[in-house]
Design a protein that fits this description.
single chain, alpha/beta, Glutaredoxin, 8 strands, about 35% helix
Length: about 190
C-alpha cells in the first residue's frame, strides 16, 4: 500500500490546484471511520464530484465551519457528491477520528491519512483546506471553504460550494483556488 500511496501522491503533486490536471492514476486506500478502506481513485469515478476537507481537532476555524460543512454536505450529497474529512495530523489514530466523528455528529466519514501523504501531495497545510475532484480524478479546486475565518458571515464567498456546483453541472470552475484559513496541520 505504501508504494501505491506514494505513486498516487506523486500523481497528485503534479496536478494539485491545476484546472487542467492529470487525473489520478493510482489507487490508494485510506481507512475510514465508517469501517471501510476507501480507494479514492474508485470513489471519484463513482461520483460527479468528490470533496476532501482536511481536519484539525482543536482548530477554532474548523469548529466555526462545521455548521457550514454540514449544510454543504446536506445540499450536495443528494446530487451524488462524495464527501470526506481527512485527518493527516501526526499522532492521530482512527479510533480518535471515530470519536471526533461521533462527538461532532458528522454524517460523512473521516479518512486517516497516516504520515500525511495525501495532505502533502495536495498541498494541504491547514485545517479546512478543501479539494474538489471530478469524476476523472482531476483536481478542479484546492483551497479554503470560503473567505471566513472564525466568524461566519452570510456574505462570505462560497469557494467550495461554487466549485462543486460547477463540477456537478459539467461547467468550468471559475475560481480554482482560494486561501484556506485554518490552523496549521502537524504532519509526520
Amino acid at each position: 500500500m505504501r508504494l501505491g500511496a506514494l505513486a498516487f501522491a506523486a500523481t497528485l503533486c503534479a496536478c494539485a490546484g491545476a484546472g487542467a490536471s492529470a487525473p489520478l492514476s493510482r489507487a490508494v486506500a485510506l481507512r475510514g471511520t465508517d469501517g471501510v478502506s476507501h480507494d479514492l481513485s474508485a470513489e471519484v469515478a463513482q461520483a460527479p464530484a468528490t470533496v476532501l476537507v482536511f481536519f484539525h481537532p482543536h482548530c477554532p476555524c474548523m469548529a466555526a465551519h462545521e455548521p457550514r460543512l454540514r449544510a454543504l454536505y446536506n445540499e450536495l450529497q443528494p446530487k451524488g457528491v462524495r464527501w470526506f474529512m481527512v485527518d493527516s495530523e501526526a499522532g492521530g489514530t482512527l479510533a480518535d477520528d471515530a470519536a471526533f466523528v461521533a462527538d461532532r455528529r458528522y454524517d460523512f466519514p473521516m479518512l486517516r491519512d497516516d504520515r500525511g501523504v495525501l495532505a502533502r501531495a495536495l498541498g494541504a497545510d491547514v485545517a479546512t483546506f478543501s479539494v474538489v475532484l471530478d469524476r476523472e480524478g482531476h483536481v478542479r479546486y484546492a483551497g479554503g471553504i470560503d473567505d471566513d475565518r472564525t466568524h461566519l458571515r452570510d456574505v462570505a464567498s462560497p469557494y467550495l460550494r461554487d466549485a462543486v456546483m460547477a463540477v456537478v453541472a459539467g461547467k468550468p470552475v471559475e475560481r480554482q483556488s482560494g486561501k484556506a484559513l485554518g490552523c496549521a496541520l502537524a504532519l509526520d
